Amino acid sequence: MPFVYSSLKQGTGRFLLCLMCCLLVLAGLIANTAVYAESGTETETETETETETDTSARIIRLSGVMGISDQVRQLALRKNESAQVQRQRLRTLVDWAPAELERRYQGILDGYSETELATLLNLLESPLMQRAREAEALALGEQGSTTYEVYMQRLQEHPPAKARRQRIELILNRNGMWQWMLKARASVPMSEAIAEPEQIRLLAEHFLLYAYRGMDNPSLDELNRLWAQPALQRWLNDAYHALPASNGAH
Fold first, then answer.
1. What does each C-alpha distance from 95 to 37, 73, 122, 187 come to in angstroms?
2. Among the listed residues 172, 229, 237, the one whose alpha carbon sits nearest the alpha carbon of residue 1
């Protein structure tokens, strides 16, 4: 589930991938997990290898649910603030650190049967899910490029066909990317990045339109079918409700 970091200036935003990003989006996350540094200014990453054998760890990585940790951290580390102020804010957000979130997610998956875990992993490792993650990762890497900016401008001037947009909206409804983004923003006290839900949703929609521009409608229909599977919906719902309570923006 890729997460969106944005100033929301004139309806456009900057999309970054945390960890992985795993990957939101779930589908488009990269395999790195950012760690809250004591200095409050630097991050350390650990890359999961493709030889990873632990089923629960693979589910957590491939579904992208760790991405919210890095987004919360980025929102907390504001520019023009001293390292001391940043450290103090990060200490109030320790429940969002990777190790703590992973512990919460692992606790959920410990309650799933082996059959349920196998079903979930099979969905996340499907060729189409892999293709979607790769497309999202590529799009995240192209943020800020001329190609990306031209495409975003074109979306403003020439909106996509209704059927195409409806497919993307359905994916967003099922993978919950924009809701996770809102949760991250609500978690940081006095966050300057708070935006209206519809602004966040539009940013996520435009990102996926770009990322999936090379996928035909039948592929998007199949991707939607995968996201709608009960096993995946249960996991996303359980993971979301395991997130720390939001501090709210004050």
1. 14, 11, 30, 10
2. 172
C-alpha dihedral over 98, 30, 164, 220, to 10 degrees?
-100
Which stretch of DSSP H or E encloses residue 195? none
Contact at 8 Å (CB) between 175 and 153? Answer: no
Quick one: tokens of 152?
């975003």
pTM summary value: 0.76
What string of pLDDT tens digits covers the 250 residues of the chain?
Answer: 655 444 333 333 333 333 233 333 333 333 333 334 333 434 333 444 443 449 999 999 999 999 898 888 888 887 677 888 888 888 888 899 999 999 999 999 999 999 999 999 999 999 999 999 999 999 989 988 999 999 999 999 999 999 999 999 999 999 988 888 888 888 876 655 556 788 888 989 999 999 999 999 999 999 999 999 999 999 999 999 999 987 644 3
Q: Are strands 3-9 and 32-35 parallel, antiparallel or unpaired?
A: unpaired
CA R_g for the chain: 17
Which segments of the chain does DSSP mark as H helices, in order?
55-63, 67-76, 83-92, 98-109, 114-124, 127-141, 146-157, 162-175, 177-187, 197-211, 217-227, 230-241
